[in-house]
Design goal:
The chain is α+β, with helices and mostly antiparallel strands. 27% of the residues lie in helices and 34% in strands. β1 and β2 form a beta hairpin.
Length: 160
Amino acid sequence: MNSHTFSVYLTYSAVTAHVSTDIWTLRGLQLDPAAVEALRASNAEQPREKRVLDYGWTPEGRLWVGVRLPDLKSVSSFIFLMPSAMRRLVADGEFSAFSESGLPSGRIRVTEDGHCWGYGPFLERSGADEGDIFIVEFDLAERTALLRLGDDEDLEKLSP
């Protein structure tokens, strides 16, 4: 079972209850409020990983975003949140994805609140690793997305 399916089962389960962010319990169990607060405080102290490194416009007029890839236990579940400045331009959208070589790479979907996914086929084929920089260029007129792996130099070229 992939992590997305597990998440859906967990969310709509008759057996589990969602207590707080990243805190779940079995329904009907009496919880110690102090223990829940201790877990919540511990979770809050964890550093938030910044995935989106930079974004902007290409000279050709495409919207681009550069993302540092996390540990990819399951590339099919890779999701990131679009920066708020570009969210309204791609929100609630669907884009045909292609690699730099022109190979079709599935469909990219962006929710109304900016969550973006659909990169699994490309990431699996490209051999992406944790720490790689993943660059997506959105052509808003054509409703396509160009996907590629890059490095810090590529980001500097896009955002001088």
